[in-house]
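Hi all, posting the design record for the shared folder.

TITLE: backbone redesign
STEP: 1 of 1
STRUCTURE INPUT:
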């Protein structure tokens, strides 16, 4: 059995998210929120969760650059002003530079792609640089764009924010940045998962093992190998696989491969409420990704009380700690063995559910927002 547990890593049990007056004044931030409404799973969640917290702070004023209408929960934020920007990338960045100057913001916080000529200190969030590490998983156009523009954004930024120590090391090494310019700020599962009491651990018996996977349909997510693992499980016992997430690069080929199996149901993108229901109904959560800069669905599943099987890909051991079974992403047999082990061992499932809930509770969007404000302060000198 090749499943193993990882070396535990802690996101920090430190600082309460108390407000921090930046140089004794209210700081005005142009916040890049263009991913709202794009159904970009983790990327959109990052923007929505942070904006919801930062918009309630009395020491900040947020000008949020959005491409479309936003939900009522964000519109209600008392200290957020929404500015529409074009959807086209170059036009959006030009509009953000104009807004930064016209609105007299103190700094700009961009996501991946930073505007030029804003005349303001720049913070840029880069969740990961998977395109540098696994370029074969990206289209030629996306690869060229990312390598040119994201690298340029990182080098122009006063501070680069990322989600994990794994991504931090990757960015420092690949882009030759000084260590003090790149900070890892772990993110967290939404409160909606932690505050929802998980259902009683249902016996599986002879019914199919319900395996859930959440993520974009793209090669890096390794769904075809997961299908191979599920087929191996099916040789021993009944199993079903539900695939949640929007289409990505080469989604057509991945869908074609997955549809060859009667045990697979491709659901597509779902909203947050539906996703919480999907987690609640799963017996096992599988996250077979080859590389992740964080892996937010792992925390969401843990917070929901679902035992997790994930991989050594990128930051996943760093996030999962000792609360998951961790396998080689290229080893279908190890994936299958981990799923079968959880299906057969109710005590192990219960143990991982308890460990996972405790692990997910260590990560906090409130703490992430507080640390981000510290970065704003440092960038302003």
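Okay, here is what came back for every position:
SEQUENCE:
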């Amino acid at each position: 059995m090749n499943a193993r547990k990882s070396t535990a890593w802690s996101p920090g049990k430190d600082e309460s998210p108390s407000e921090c007056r930046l140089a004794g004044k209210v700081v005005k931030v142009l916040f890049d929120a263009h991913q709202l409404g794009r159904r970009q799973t983790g990327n959109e969640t990052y923007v929505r969760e942070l904006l919801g917290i930062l918009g309630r702070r009395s020491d900040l004023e947020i000008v949020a650059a959005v491409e479309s209408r936003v939900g009522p929960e964000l519109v209600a934020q008392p200290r957020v002003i929404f500015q529409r920007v074009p959807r086209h990338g170059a036009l959006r960045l030009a509009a953000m530079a104009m807004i930064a100057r016209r609105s007299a913001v103190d700094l700009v916080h961009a996501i991946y792609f930073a505007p030029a000529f804003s005349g303001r200190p720049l913070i840029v969030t880069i969740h990961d640089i998977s395109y540098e590490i696994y370029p074969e998983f990206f289209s030629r156009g996306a690869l060229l764009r990312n390598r040119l523009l994201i690298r340029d954004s990182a080098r122009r930024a006063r501070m680069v924010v990322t989600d994990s120590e794994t991504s931090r090391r990757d960015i420092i090494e690949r882009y030759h940045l000084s260590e003090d310019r790149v900070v890892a700020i772990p993110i967290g599962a939404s409160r909606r998962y932690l505050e929802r009491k998980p259902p009683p651990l249902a016996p599986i018996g002879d019914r199919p093992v319900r395996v859930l996977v959440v993520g974009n349909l793209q090669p890096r997510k390794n769904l075809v190998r997961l299908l191979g693992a599920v087929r191996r499980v099916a040789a021993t016992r009944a199993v079903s696989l539900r695939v949640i997430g929007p289409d990505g690069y080469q989604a057509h080929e991945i869908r074609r491969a997955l549809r060859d199996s009667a045990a697979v149901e491709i659901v597509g993108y779902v909203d947050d409420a539906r996703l919480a229901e999907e987690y609640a109904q799963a017996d096992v959560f599988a996250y077979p990704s080859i590389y992740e800069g964080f892996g937010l669905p792992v925390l969401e599943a843990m917070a929901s009380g679902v035992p997790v099987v994930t991989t050594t890909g990128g930051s996943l051991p760093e996030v999962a700690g000792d609360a998951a079974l961790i396998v080689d992403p290229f080893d279908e047999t190890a994936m299958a063995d981990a799923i079968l082990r959880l299906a057969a061992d109710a005590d192990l499932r219960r143990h991982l559910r308890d460990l996972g809930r405790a692990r997910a509770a260590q990560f906090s969007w409130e703490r992430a927002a507080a640390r981000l404000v510290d970065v704003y302060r440092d960038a302003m000198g």
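COMMENT: Confidence is low (pLDDT under 50) at residues 4-9, 13-22.
Let me know if anyone wants the other runs.
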